[in-house]
Amino acid sequence: MRPLNLCINIFSGFIYEQQITMLLLRRTVQAGKHGRSFSASQTLLSERKGLVLGVFEKEGEEGGLHLTEAAAGFDQTLSGKLSELLKISGPTLKQGKSRIFYGIHKDFPCVAVVGLGKTTAGVCGSENWDTSKENVRQAMSAGCRLLQDLEVKHVEVDGCGDAQSAAEGAGLGLFQYDQLKSKKKNKVTTQLHGSADSAGWQKGVTYAEGQNLARMLMEAPANHITPTAFANTIEEKLAPHAERVTIHKRSQAWIEQQQMGAFLSVSRGSEEPPVFLELHYNGSPDSKQAPLLLVGKGITFDSGGISLKPPSSMDAMRADMGGAATVCASIVTAAALKLPVNIIGLAPLCENMPSGKATKPGDVVVAKNGKTIQVDNTDAEGRLVLADALCYGHTFNPRAIVNVATLTGAIDVALGSAATGVFTNSDWLWEQLQKASVVTGDRVWRMPLFQHYTRQVTDCQLADLNNVGNSRSGGACTAAAFLREFVTAPHWAHLDIAGVMSNKDEVPYLRKGMSGRPTRTLVEFAAGLVHKG
Ligand code: BES
Ligand code: ZN
Ligand code: ZN
């Protein structure tokens, strides 16, 4: 019997998942061009390997498919069996759609094939991202997850001509925070298939691991990731890069010495001591090169304080350290990539809790730069901790300052989870961030820093500034205007990431949960500064 016939026989009821797994496991299948026989049942469940391949839609040919290089190579070893199966098994695989074939190759009992869309997709001016890269991420993520659900332990992944994006899709798609569950998801290891671009693959693995570190920190419960535990975790993650990294875990006494009255006004309601985490990554061969300064809001739990939040979804406020998580994770990633730039990371870490000692609405506090702030709403705490961190950050004479914060519900109303809101005083910095985000697909959108908003926070009864605007409207913009009062540097950007903090199903290659966005954009942005003096 010719191999192709046998194959069609076996796969006549192809191949949507489990129904026929058992059937196929019992059959003996002719293996590819070498014509060897093998029994799929001999493959132990615990060592089953899978393969994820991509197929493009052929330009100008309705229903036509164009195999990637790896898929074409695989098809060849099976004497065209894969393309034959793709033809007979149903409609053409559209972008993101998948099909699984069982038992067609002796090394890979399960092969997932996923649609990559059109070969010509590329950068899209209206979507502000590279659709081809997004398609690869989505497809490789979907394929890996399908195989993970089949309890495949090791998956080889098609580089799809963009091994970095393929690795990102695989690494991000497989991530699941299940440390605290008794029943965990099947752990899957991945490897590049049919491509020589192992450098691109490794870079993608590192980018995905960076974002997954941020996801892990954000998803973890607030009784596990306290300010102290956060700082210790980052210290551990940076330990392999100790040669180029210095870490300071600044104590409450240091924070007091620095006269960070705004930061301390937030932490005072909690029993957990605050930590001011300071990371120095010295990657540049020129140790005197002005650093990039990244500042992340690190509220490990935001109850709202005395201006207590309503109980529904308050649990999500364990991720209110998303700014600190993405900033620190991007520095860990920069160190892993050995990026030749200097970066300083600052994370004011504390809880925002109500207690007899907590700051009360109407209290006035003094920030590090001497400005007085009337705290009319203790739930607008992010801007207070950032104000002091920004003042301190200027002492390093940074080439640029980027602060990242889950700052306002209003940015979620404005942009949803499509993009991070960026408020910046620098067209140059905006361009760098925007360019990076097109590559990563983790997008940014520029927002205004008009005096109009500044007036709303400087109009204050008792102090220089009010921590909330005098109007309910434009909340993300008044928060940014408040932060600007603590910035004198010419290249500063504030990234409000409250809208992108979590994922339901909007980003197809992230499961439901805390997103770790925009870690990859921060890394790509830092990498883009390498040749910029
Ligand atoms: N951490 C919140 C913002 C937030 C909301 C993050 C939803 C993620 C998802 C922040 O501290 C806050 O409570 N902001 C207030 C400000 C208001 C009191 C002026 C808000 O957005 O409602
Ligand atoms: Zn708050
Ligand atoms: Zn907050």
From TrEMBL:
UniProt xrefs under CDD domains: Peptidase_M17 (cd00433)
Keyword Translocase attached: no
GO cellular component: cytoplasm
Residue span(s) of domain Cytosol aminopeptidase: 377-384
Keyword list, A-Z: Aminopeptidase, Cytoplasm, Hydrolase, Magnesium, Manganese, Metal-binding, Protease, Zinc
Gene Ontology molecular function: any one: metal ion binding
Pfam families in alphabetical order: Peptidase_M17, Peptidase_M17_N
Essential cofactor(s): Mn(2+); Zn(2+)
Any one Gene Ontology BP term: proteolysis
Presence of keyword rRNA processing: no
Superkingdom: Eukaryota
Catalytic activity of the protein: Release of an N-terminal amino acid, Xaa-|-Yaa-, in which Xaa is preferably Leu, but may be other amino acids including Pro although not Arg or Lys, and Yaa may be Pro. Amino acid amides and methyl esters are also readily hydrolyzed, but rates on arylamides are exceedingly low; Release of N-terminal proline from a peptide; an S-substituted L-cysteinylglycine + H2O = an S-substituted L-cysteine + glycine; L-cysteinylglycine + H2O = L-cysteine + glycine
Gene3D superfamilies xrefs: Leucine Aminopeptidase, subunit E, domain 1, Zn peptidases
SUPFAM superfamilies associated with the record: Macro domain-like, Zn-dependent exopeptidases
Cellular compartments annotated: Cytoplasm
EC annotation from Swiss-Prot or TrEMBL: 3.4.11.1, 3.4.11.5, 3.4.13.23
Complex formation: Homohexamer.
The protein's role, per its UniProt record: Cytosolic metallopeptidase that catalyzes the removal of unsubstituted N-terminal hydrophobic amino acids from various peptides. The presence of Zn(2+) ions is essential for the peptidase activity, and the association with other cofactors can modulate the substrate spectificity of the enzyme. For instance, in the presence of Mn(2+), it displays a specific Cys-Gly hydrolyzing activity of Cys-Gly-S-conjugates. Involved in the metabolism of glutathione and in the degradation of glutathione S-conjugates, which may play a role in the control of the cell redox status.
UniProt similarity note: Belongs to the peptidase M17 family.
Name of the molecule in the record: Cytosol aminopeptidase
